[in-house]
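[step 3/7] fold_predict: job queued, chain A
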Amino acid sequence: MKQISPNEVESLRKQGKELSVIDVREAEEVAAGKIPGAVNIPLGLLEFRLQDLDKSKEHIVVCRSGGRSSMAANLLEERGYKVINMAGGMNDWQGPTE
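[step 4/7] structure written:
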């Protein structure tokens, strides 16, 4: 599984890259702040929302610390999606939130 650091994600954002970020935390956690533009799909609902994800894009998967996003990335990879796990999760995120 590919990994990316929070700093690398923020660098790509600052460069104006169009990113597909999937936040797999629960809604209560996301309410405290998420990466701007991230789509919240809690891990427990992910396999029921696969039709909402574009298989032609690479998706960056995020959670609080990297554990749930790793599970989500494995699930998506098994189903043919291109994914990168954001190591360290939102605990290590230094960029802006919304």
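[step 5/7] annotate
The beta strands are 2-4, 20-23, 39-40, 58-62, 82-86.
Residues 38 and 94 are 15 Å apart (CA to CA).
exit 0
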